[in-house]
Design brief:
The complex is a heterodimer of chains A (164) and B (536). Chain A has 164 residues and is α+β, with helices and mostly antiparallel strands. Chain A is built from one helix and ten strands, in the order H-E-E-E-E-E-E-E-E-E-E. Chain B is built from 23 helices and two strands. The chains are: A alpha+beta (164), B mainly alpha (536).
């Protein structure tokens, strides 16, 4: 009697293990692609990696210039060409910095005040030095910079921002 | 710890004892592998819900967006092609499993008293499964979707009296389907049908539990078994095999995407999904005013007969081996179905369109007149880039960023003598005019011609212009109609055919009036490249 009982129990737990195994495999086969589908970055087709925006030779040292350029913006299945700008500064060492044209405080567009030699945001009077450091006002951090590189005398700009 | 949580759950919700009650259901001793199909059908539905939900998260649900978003899912989203493959093949698999489930029930006579209602609810679930397939077929909005749904809508409009109202319900406007039909099919596919299906699956399961799994005559006097573990194990194995088969299909049988629906493309031969082909063939058996017989009356009668099966076959329960009439009927239906389907496949011409045409990124430059593509070539030929470097500031205005605002006269003069030290232009008057259009018009397609048109294609467009092919042939809306239009040439002829045809048109087309063009091999290749790139 007792041996029959334990036999039934073993059989039941054997089936239980197999059922759970199959269930787990099925769940994994569906859940893994679903996770990848939702969480991984889609392949970017059509987005510009680096856009050429200016001739480094034409930039004046120590005088920021607002450069207008076109960038392909990709939003899911839509891509559009959009006009955008960057504040470009060349220093005496020949290095070029491209700032995001948006104040780090609340997102207003700032401009260069040539008399004061500072970037000034008209919204809440945040001001930044030519190196992007905060000089005054409520801005929480220096100006954000675009990742750039110089190739053959041309300034290339990536859509990615480096936050200070 | 586990026991404590389990105990808490039991006391507060009763879920654990509910699970036990579910698993310990009594089933007849004869229950076995033949009864797994219901569980597999339920699981197939759940897979469709899960994959459908995932697809909807990346789907632009209007005709303008749908096609591009499906291409995005297929080519850019990680695992997107697999998820769509599961959903696509899952719909076919669900039809197969539901039909197998019904065949099993028919062979065993499991629809007999008191299970008639279970059978009838099941028949409605079969219809819902097919309605899912029909409505989902439209959603990628490629040519296949559009034209197959156009046929569906026309059939729905056939019945006398009700026809026009049904057509209106399907969103048909002015005899054609469009945004309204799309909105209705989409809403049906993701809201209405799932809701009704879930309710009816609930009713179906309730009835199955109420009446219990159908016993066979041999079960009389034999002790009952429990649902758990053997039958649950069989169901798990069947569901596992189903899932693996589906994943293999989704991985290896790639689901295509045709070109975006083009309501003016009359050359497209629509075809329904394979499980509708027998209806499609039945339709063709009747002509003229009798069409409604094949399209609506026969299928409706067949459906009524199917629903009424339990009331027609009212005999006492028999062992499955003795149910020869039922077997003969099932075999007869299967042969009839296979015969009609085979005839439908044999009599439908093969699809001329590349099944993956819609997956390739659209080349915008191929959609503008040859003159405008050729103008890019003139720009290069006349060395305009010496000052106008595209995409960045240079000596002259950057024409890729902003269109020229100068007057045409100023531009023509400028082209003739761009700068005091510049060499004279090599362009003709007509070519300069094309260049005026290029630099003053600024749209996405024109910019794409500048940025992405391959050199061969631009050269091809220049040849198309200098040889004045447009006098007889229309291309992207411009040109004469003496010869055939150049749009969609790639779906009509092979590369070798086109290249051979230039040298000796009469050899390829009897009575052709096109003069022979003995182009140098290089030019021949360039103009052929260009023409093959022109979309439908």
């Amino acid at each position: 009697m007792s041996s029959e009982n334990s036999g039934t129990t073993t059989r039941r737990s054997f089936y239980s293990v197999l059922i759970n195994l199959f269930g787990g495999l099925i769940a994994a086969v569906i859940a893994i692609p679903a996770g990848a589908y939702l969480l991984l970055k889609p392949k970017n087709s059509g987005a510009d990696e680096m856009v050429e925006i200016a001739d480094v030779g034409t930039l004046e040292i120590g005088k920021p210039k607002e450069v207008v350029y076109f960038r392909t913006r990709v939003d899911g299945w839509k891509s559009s060409k959009e006009k955008t700008t960057a504040w470009v500064v060349k220093n005496s060492a020949g290095e070029v910095i491209a700032f995001d044209p948006i104040c780090t405080h609340l997102g207003c567009a700032y401009h260069w005040e040539d008399d004061q030699k500072e970037f000034l945001c008209p919204c809440h009077t945040s001001s930044f030095g030519i190196d992007g450091k905060v000089l005054g006002g409520p801005a929480p951090r220096p100006l954000d910079r675009y990742v750039t590189k110089i190739e053959g005398g041309k300034l290339l700009i990536s859509p990615d921002l480096q936050k200070a | 710890m586990f026991k404590a949580i389990w105990g808490w759950l039991e006391e507060r919700t009763g879920i654990p004892s509910g699970i036990h009650h579910f698993l310990d259901e009594d089933i007849p001793a004869s229950a076995g592998w033949h009864q797994v199909f219901g569980s597999v059908a339920l699981f197939a539905f759940l897979i469709q819900v899960a994959t459908g939900l995932l697809l909807a998260l990346n789907f632009g649900s209007t005709p303008g967006e749908a096609h591009a978003s499906v291409r995005y899912i297929m080519t850019q989203v990680t695992g997107g092609a697999l998820i769509r493959g599961l959903h696509h093949w899952g719909s076919s698999a669900m039809v197969i499993v539901v039909v197998l489930h019904m065949v099993q029930v028919s062979l065993w006579g499991a629809y007999k008293k008191p299970r008639e209602a279970t059978w009838m609810v099941g028949c409605v679930l079969l219809l819902l499964t097919m309605a899912f397939g029909l409505s989902g077929y439209l959603l990628p909005w490629d040519n296949k979707s559009y034209w197959a749904t156009t046929v569906t809508a026309k059939i729905a409009a056939l019945p006398p009296v009700a026809g026009p109202y049904v057509a209106r319900l399907l969103g048909v406007q002015g005899g054609a389907i469009g945004v309204v039909t799309f909105a209705r099919f989409y809403t049906a596919h993701i809201m209405l049908l799932p809701l009704v299906t879930v309710l009816l699956i609930g009713a179906h399961l309730f009835l199955v539990r109420k009446h219990g799994v159908t016993p066979t005559p041999e079960d009389a006097g034999r002790p009952k078994k429990k649902f758990f573990p053997e039958q649950v194990f069989r169901d798990s194995v069947a569901v596992f095999v189903f899932t693996m088969a589906l994943v293999l299909m989704a991985n290896f049988a790639k689901v295509g995407l045709g070109s975006m629906a083009d309501p003016t493309d009359t050359s497209f031969v629509p075809r329904p999904e394979w499980y509708f082909l027998f209806l499609f063939q039945t339709l063709k058996l009747f002509e003229g005013p009798l069409e409604v017989v094949g399209a609506v009356i026969l299928p409706t009668l067949g459906l009524i007969a199917l629903i009424l099966v339990p009331f027609i076959d009212r005999g006492a329960a028999m062992r499955v081996q003795k149910r020869t009439v039922a077997m003969a009927l099932v075999v007869f239906c299967a042969i009839g179905w296979a015969g009609l389907t085979q005839r439908a496949i044999a009599t439908t011409p093969a699809d001329a369109e590349d099944p993956e045409a819609g997956l390739k990124p659209p080349s915008l430059w191929a959609q503008i007149p040859a003159e405008e593509v050729a103008a890019v070539g003139y720009f290069r030929k006349d060395n305009c880039a010496r000052c106008h470097v595209l995409g960045r500031s240079s000596l002259g205005p950057d024409l890729a960023r902003e269109a020229s605002t100068k007057s045409p006269d100023w531009l023509l003069e400028h082209f003739a003598k761009p700068a005091p030290d510049a060499p004279d232009s090599q362009l003709t008057g007509a070519q300069m005019k094309a260049l005026v259009t290029l630099v003053t018009k600024r749209d996405e397609k024109g910019l794409d011609a500048w940025q992405s048109a391959p050199i061969e294609a631009v050269s091809g467009a220049m040849i198309f212009q200098t040889r004045q092919c447009f006098l007889c042939h229309q291309l992207n809306g411009i040109g004469g109609t003496v010869g055939p239009p150049m749009n969609g040439l790639s779906s009509r002829h092979t590369r070798d055919w086109i290249m051979g045809h230039f040298g000796d048109p009469k050899k390829y087309v009897q009575g052709s009036r096109m003069p022979a063009y003995k182009l140098p091999q290089e030019e021949l290749a360039q103009v052929t490249d260009y023409l093959l790139a022109i979309p439908k």
